[in-house]
Structures are given as C-alpha cells and as structure tokens.
C-alpha cells in the first residue's frame, strides 16, 4: 500500500468512526442541526445581502431553565429550532463576586419578552440572570453573596455542558472558564498553539494534550514516556542515561536545544524535566517559530505547571517497585488569608532507583514552591521557583554489530562503575497579568535559570566487531549555564462589522550564557563487550577545551484569530526574530578563537478552520520555522552558516465525538532546508556546506477523552516517511535515523462506578514501534517491538492504591541509537512493577 492509498484509507476510516460515534451519541442527546456555509452566505451578490444573511444566522434563545442537582445548579438555554449556540470559552470569567458567561451571536426571545432572573436559588447565590448585553450578545450572570459562589454552576446548551465554576476553583490566573470535564482525560482547550485559551476544534493545526490524570494512571516519571501516547513521536529513551531524546515528525525535540517550554517560556535543561508539578503536557506539532522563535520544524513540547488553588488541597503518595525503586511526593495548596488574595502551592518529590543496567542508579530531589498574589480584582502576580538535584550513572548503552544491536545481555554496562552525571538546577520566575477590560489584557513572563551539569566517564570510540574490543576515551564535561527570558504580550478582542477578532501582540527578549569545559583527548583502557573487565581507573577533571558563549534573542510577533462567521475562522500571524551570537573556543595550548554572528528572519503562519457541523472541524495551515546555526560553524571559505529553515503544509479533520471525547486526523508535508553536508570540493572532509535537505511526510490519528463514565482512553497511530532529499555524501532517499514508519499506542482505563466494587479499576497499555534505521547511512536497523503495560487500582474515599506493570511480557527491545551512533544503542527496560499508595483531601 503506497503513502496516498494509506492516507485515503485512514481518512475514510476516521470519518466512519466519527459517523458511528455521532449516531451513538445522538441516542443520548438531541441531534444538532448542520450549519453549512451557504446558510450564512447563501447566494448573496451584494454587501447588503451578505449582512442580511449574517443577521439571519443569529440564534434565538426561547427558554431558560435552572435546576438544582446533587452537584449544584444547572442552567439550560433552549433555542429556536434547536440551533446551536456559539460557546466562546474566552468570554467566560469571574468578575467581582459574579461568574459571567458572554455568548455571541444570540438574542433573547423569551415568552414574556423579559430577561430571565432567579433569586436566592442557593445559600451562596443571590441571583441568576440571563440578559441581552447588546444587539448580538447575551450574558449569563451568577452572583454570589460576598464572593463568587462555591456551588458548582453548569451551563447547558445544545447537549453540551460547561462549568462556570472551574474558572474560580481552578488555578488559571486569567480566570477563564473552560468546558466542563477538565479533570480526567478530557481536554477541550489548549493555550500552546495560539498563546490564548482556544478550543482545540478552532485551532488550524495538530496539538495534543496529555492530562495530569494520564500521568498519574500510567505512573510515568519521564516526559519521553508520557508523550509516547501522542502520534508522530519517536521516544529514543534516555541519552547517556540522563536526558530524554525525543523526535517529533522526524526531527529532534531536545530539552537543551530550546524545543521545550514551561508555561510557554523556553526552558533549557540537562536531564529530564520533572513531572511532579505538571498539570498537563501539550505537544504542538510542526513549525512553531511564529510564537516560540528558534525551534526545530517538528514541533515543541509545553509543560503546563500546577498553579496555586483558592481552596485547601493536600496530596501525598509513596511508591515502591523492583530495581529498588522508591519515591515519595507531596502536593499542598490553598489560601494564606481569609480573603483568598494570597494563594500558595508546594510540590516536592524524592526518587531513588537502581536499574536493569549493571551498576546504574538514579537519585533525584525536586522542590517547587509558588505563590499567587491577587493585587486587585483585575491584577495577579504569580511567583514560583524550581530546584532540582540530579545524580545518575553516566551510561552510553550498548553497541551495534553488523546490521543489528550486538547479541549481548541488555543489562551489560560498557562504561565504568564510577561513571556519573550530576546537576544542580535553580529556576525562578514570575507571571504578571492585568485585565484592562473584558476585552483587553496584558501578560508578562519572566524566568531565570541556572545549572551546572557534570558528566564524567569514558566514551566509546571504535569497536572491533570481530574481537569485541571497544576502544574508549577519557571524557569529562562541566561548566555553568544561565538563561534569562522575558515575554510580554497584549491580547485584545474587538469586531470590525460582523467579523470578530482576537489579536495577540508580543515582544520577547532572552539571553543565554554558556561556559562549558571539556576533557576528551586521552585514551582509556579498552573493554571487551563479550567479556567485560572494568579498569576502574579514575582520571583528572582538568579541562583541555573551553567555550564561552553568549546569545541574544529579540522577537516581535503578531497574531489575529478571525471569526468571519461562527463556523469559519482564520488564523494569521508572523514573527520577526533577531538572533545574535558571541562565541569563543580555545584548546588549552592554543590561542582563543572568537566568532560573532547575527541572523534575522520573518516566519509566518496561516490557517483556516471550517466547521460544517458543530462537532466537526476541517482545517488547513501553512507554517515556517527558523533556527540559527552554531556561530562557530563556517564554510571552507570562512563564510558564516545561514539559519536552517523549515516549511510545512498541513490539512486535517477534528471531531468532538462526545462532549468529553475528541479525535484528530492530520496529514502533513514538512521540509527542512540548509542542512549541513560535506563539502565535495574539500579533499580533507573537514568542511561542510549547507546544501542538504530532509523531508518528512505523514499522517497521524489521535483520540483523547472519556468514552463513558469511568472509561477513559488516549490512543494514537502515525505513519512517517522521513528521508534525505538532498545531500553531497549520504544517498538521497535514505531514511532518517531512529524514525519508524509506523507507530501506535493505546492506553485505556475503566473504573467501576456503582455497587460493591465501586472504585475498583484496571488499565491496559499497548505500544507498537516499527523497525527503523539506526543511522543516516542506513547501515543497521533497530527491530520493531510491541510492549504491553497494565495497571490495577482501587479508590476508596480519598485513598487510592495502585499497581502498575510495565513490559508485562518481558519483551526485549531497543528504543533508539543516540544521534545515529552505532556505539550508543539504548535498550528498553524489562518487566518492571511499581506499587503506589496515595491520599488527597
């Protein structure tokens, strides 16, 4: 089956799934009318006729009901002919002691022609009102006694439910009310793709979310394992035993090369980011330079952290497993004053574990306090910090012989028992936000980060594949790294006639300082991979090579989210970047070499979303990326390298299968240009020129959410064809290293909801990774694998006990070859088990 046949078949299958789901879902809710484009535009030929058609699209609210339930209050809006209302979550907010939801393109047409009002429905609610705000907007307002009501208030319209209370009881500093069901596996909105809180159905691109509940259910401790739930991800395991090595759509996403973000702020870190204080992980696929500057074209990973809560919350857990694994964690939050204007949150964890790898062990301590200050009803300041102390075995993995990984035990260690990676990292920052009015707000981010990684242990150099003798080199790397980042953006909402806009204007400034030191020239005793004898000879950490680098980034970006009519939306934007580098290199016995370079570029993004049905979105987009080359890189004539660029075309379909279940089908064509390749005119082979190009094209399918009460799912599958399309040395058509054509994942849990066994549940995980080339020369392959995970849990009141099994059938597999290196093949973990006890109140 060729690529386009596969794409067509997958698209048909996805649409059939959407159809089946909608037929099933219609049995439990009123069917919603389709809204084809011609309903709004019809056959108009003049502006007057067009405006008349737009006015005809206004929805009439004919009845308002409210009901007391066991959980709180339900407010139901009924419309003429069952037409759906446009629910814009960004219009939901808390203002003073009221919860407010503004609904566009709607008019009140109640039987008595009067606004709806109910008084004192509960002890903490004084009034519920539904009024006409202006000619085309209505307002739902729920007013509390002295503060926003604590009673759960749910707005229902057209079979969908939206929680008005989540904007107060949750921790969003913008106080945005999003769709009901934000807990669990449901994730209807994303802030990563647009830097605004936007429904996923309205985003012309692929963004996938891993909610906190998935992280808890799977008990993962690494970002790489978490985002393996997402299509288009290649999880290579840990580079040299300490850092996640991840690829998106065929291109590396590095924790230290600027493709990871924390609450939308670029973060650089040696090692794996900690999951203890994460609320969710958002994965934005494709070039993202429009909002995030210099990044690889495959996409970015945004780590969204937990925020201080206005109500007391206390959580603690303890885990123990095989390989002497022990972990404890706490999560504490609540107000520090009666007015709830000062809120705190404290997350902390400690983990220690041995490994299936000989001599390998890990220890980590993590601490993250945060404080939210409500300076006024419209102004908040949140200050936070993170401290990480890491110590782990420096482990370069196994080797390849011939066309596959060497036939030696996966636990065999080819470094030295003293090999070690350690790091202390401190990160502090704040977020200041101010709302000028209902339509205009300002947000300012600041973050400072410092770390001092230390890597010590011999590195593999050359393998004699006949004898098994592995030549090694003394290696040490240390030094200090600092990153200073600030980002300010202004968000405004306005209309030009019947067209609605949400505009984002931003300014970004950052500075990085890197002063690493290295030792890598001296030989170290060989080791035999078939019969290892460890030399155990420590060596000096005296550096012999130095770098001193300073880089500056200045970025200005503009984005407009345009709603032409309720079911036709545009996304337009561009960014201008200036990137300056001041770098120096020096060998101990040589004079210092200094380099300076300045690059700039404009990166645009365009997208369109059409919603023929209220639960279905069709989208297309174009985007570009920009990433400067290392400033010390030069052509043979000493000219500077230009930035690498990426370009992507993407189309897709998104379906809200039920209010808590969403599916995305995407197809893309992605090209990376200005890739460095060998200079054919250089006989020494030492110089490169930028004539290379690589291309990745594929299709992806993701489903996330709740199928029915108690039954959750996150599943994905993807096909990637990633190849070299231009090069001076490597054969054109070679596959990119470590990128499987096919991947698939399924994680699902079910918890019994009633009866004697209420709270008992189980989970099942299935992960398939196709075989893939281990290097760009395509000289060896990593075999395919199919891994099974499982869980069993029981929840009683505020206690939960949980058992997680990873690699249930003890399959032997390999996750990747670091940077296409035959001498650094990473094996996957065998059967492992982890038991967890947790309590929250």
Give the key terms:
disordered N terminus, 5-stranded mixed β-sheet, 7% helix, mainly beta, globular, 56% strand, 23-stranded antiparallel β-sheet, 841 residues, single chain
Task: Indicate the mean pLDDT.
Answer: 87
Number of helices: 7
CA radius of gyration is 28 Å
Largest sheet: 23 strands, antiparallel
Count of strand segments: 52
Strand content: over 45%
Gap between N and C termini? 54 Å
Alpha-beta classification: mainly beta
Taken from the alpha-carbon principal axes, the silhouette is globular
Account of the protein in words:
By secondary structure, the chain is mainly beta. The protein is built from seven helices and 52 strands. Strand 15 (243-248) and strand 16 (251-254) form a beta hairpin.
Topology at a glance:
Elements: H1 3-26, H2 38-41, H3 47-56, E1 59-68, E2 72-79, E3 92-95, E4 98-104, E5 106-108, E6 116-122, E7 125-134, E8 137-144, E9 152-157, E10 160-163, H4 166-169, E11 189-190, E12 198-199, E13 207-211, H5 212-218, H6 223-226, E14 233-239, E15 243-248, E16 251-254, E17 260-262, E18 265-266, E19 278-285, H7 289-292, E20 299-305, E21 313-321, E22 325-335, E23 342-354, E24 361-376, E25 379-393, E26 400-401, E27 404-405, E28 420-435, E29 440-451, E30 454-456, E31 459-463, E32 469-473, E33 476-496, E34 499-519, E35 523-528, E36 545-565, E37 568-587, E38 593-613, E39 616-627, E40 644-658, E41 661-678, E42 688-708, E43 711-726, E44 742-751, E45 760-769, E46 772-773, E47 781-782, E48 785-796, E49 799-806, E50 814-817, E51 825-827, E52 832-840
Parallel strand pairs: 1-5, 2-9, 17-20
Antiparallel strand pairs: 1-2, 3-4, 4-8, 6-7, 7-8, 9-10, 11-12, 13-19, 14-15, 15-16, 17-18, 19-20, 21-22, 21-52, 22-23, 23-24, 24-25, 25-28, 26-27, 28-29, 28-30, 29-33, 30-33, 31-32, 32-35, 33-34, 34-36, 36-37, 37-38, 38-39, 39-40, 40-41, 41-42, 42-43, 43-44, 44-45, 45-48, 46-47, 48-49, 49-52, ...
């Amino acid at each position: 089956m060729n690529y386009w046949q596969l794409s067509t078949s997958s698209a048909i299958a996805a649409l059939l799934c959407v159809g089946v789901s909608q037929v099933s879902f219609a049995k439990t809710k009123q069917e919603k009318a389709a809204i084809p484009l011609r309903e709004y535009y019809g056959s108009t030929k003049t502006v007057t006729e067009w405006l008349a058609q737009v006015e005809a699209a206004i929805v009439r609210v004919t009845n308002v009901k409210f009901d007391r339930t066991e959980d709180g209050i339900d407010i139901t809006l009924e419309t003429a002919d069952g037409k759906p209302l446009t629910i814009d979550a960004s219009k939901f907010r808390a203002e003073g002691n009221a919860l407010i939801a503004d609904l566009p393109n709607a008019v009140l047409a109640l039987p008595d022609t009067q606004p709806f009002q109910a008084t004192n429905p509960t002890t903490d609610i004084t009034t519920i009102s539904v009024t006409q705000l202006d000619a085309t907007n209505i307002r739902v307002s729920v007013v509390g006694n002295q503060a926003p009501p604590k009673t759960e208030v749910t707005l229902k319209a057209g079979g969908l439910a939206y929680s008005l209370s989540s904007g107060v009881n949750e921790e969003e500093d913008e106080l945005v009310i999003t769709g009901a069901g934000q807990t669990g596996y449901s994730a209807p909105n994303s802030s990563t793709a647009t830097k605004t809180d936007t429904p996923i159905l309205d985003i012309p691109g692929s963004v996938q979310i891993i909610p906190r509940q998935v992280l808890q259910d799977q008990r993962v401790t690494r970002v790489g394992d978490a985002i393996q739930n997402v299509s288009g991800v290649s999880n290579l395991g840990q580079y040299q035993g300490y850092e996640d090595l991840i690829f998106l759509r065929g291109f590396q996403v590095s924790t230290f090369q600027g493709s990871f973000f924390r609450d939308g702020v670029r973060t650089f870190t040696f090692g794996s980011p900690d999951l203890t204080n994460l609320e969710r992980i958002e994965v934005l696929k494709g070039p993202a330079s429009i909002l995030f500057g210099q990044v690889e074209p495959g996409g970015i990973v945004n780590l969204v952290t937990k925020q201080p809560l206005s109500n007391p919350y206390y959580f603690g857990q303890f885990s123990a497993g095989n390989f002497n694994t022990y972990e404890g964690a706490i999560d504490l939050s609540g107000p520090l004053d009666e007015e709830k204007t000062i809120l705190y949150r404290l997350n902390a964890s400690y983990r220690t574990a041995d490994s299936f790898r000989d001599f390998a062990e890990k220890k980590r301590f993590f601490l993250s306090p945060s404080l939210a200050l409500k300076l006024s009803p419209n102004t908040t300041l949140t200050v936070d910090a993170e401290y990480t102390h890491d110590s782990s075995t420096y482990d370069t993995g196994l080797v390849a012989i011939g066309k596959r990984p060497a036939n030696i035990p996966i636990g065999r260690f080819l470094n030295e028992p003293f090999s070690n990676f350690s790091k202390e990292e401190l990160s502090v920052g704040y977020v200041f936000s101010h709302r000028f009015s209902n339509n205009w707000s300002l947000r300012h981010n600041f973050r400072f980060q410092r770390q001092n990684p230390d890597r010590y242990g011999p590195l593999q150099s050359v393998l004699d594949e006949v004898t098994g003798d592995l030549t090694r080199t003394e290696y040490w790397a240390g030094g200090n790294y600092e990153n200073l980042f600030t980002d300010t953006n202004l968000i405004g909402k306005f209309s030009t006639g019947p067209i609605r806009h949400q505009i984002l204007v931003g300014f970004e400034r950052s500075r990085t300082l890197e002063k690493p030191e290295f030792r890598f020239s001296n030989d170290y005793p060989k080791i035999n991979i078939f019969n290892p004898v460890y030399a155990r000879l420590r060596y000096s950490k005296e550096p012999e090579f130095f770098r001193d680098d300073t880089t500056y980034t200045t970025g200005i970006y503009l984005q407009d989210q345009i709603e032409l009519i309720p079911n036709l939306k545009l996304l337009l934007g561009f960014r201008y970047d200036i990137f300056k580098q001041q770098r120096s290199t020096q060998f101990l016995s040589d004079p210092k070499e200094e380099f300076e370079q300045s690059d700039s570029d404009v990166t645009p993004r365009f997208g369109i979303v059409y919603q023929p049905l209220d639960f279905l979105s069709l989208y297309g987009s174009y985007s570009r990326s920009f990433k400067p080359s290392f400033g010390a890189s030069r052509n043979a004539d000493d000219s500077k390298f230009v930035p690498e660029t990426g370009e992507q075309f993407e189309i897709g379909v998104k379906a809200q299968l039920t209010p808590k279940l969403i599916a995305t089908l995407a197809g893309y064509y992605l090209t990376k240009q200005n890739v460095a390749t060998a200079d054919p005119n250089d006989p020494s082979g030492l110089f490169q020129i930028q004539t290379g190009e690589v291309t990745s094209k594929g299709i992806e399918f993701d489903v996330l959410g709740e199928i029915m009460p108690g039954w959750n799912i996150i599943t994905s599958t993807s096909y990637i064809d990633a190849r070299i399309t231009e090069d001076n040395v490597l054969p054109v058509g070679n596959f990119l290293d470590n990128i499987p054509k096919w991947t698939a994942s399924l994680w699902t849990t079910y918890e019994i909801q009633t009866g004697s066994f209420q709270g008992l549940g189980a989970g099942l995980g299935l992960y398939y990774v196709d075989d893939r080339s281990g290097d760009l020369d395509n000289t060896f392959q990593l075999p395919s694998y199919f891994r099974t995970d499982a869980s069993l849990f029981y929840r009683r009141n505020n206690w939960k006990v949980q058992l997680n099994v990873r690699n249930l059938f003890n399959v032997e597999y390999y996750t990747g070859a670091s940077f296409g290196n035959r001498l650094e093949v990473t094996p996957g973990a065998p059967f492992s088990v982890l038991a967890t006890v947790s309590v929250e109140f």
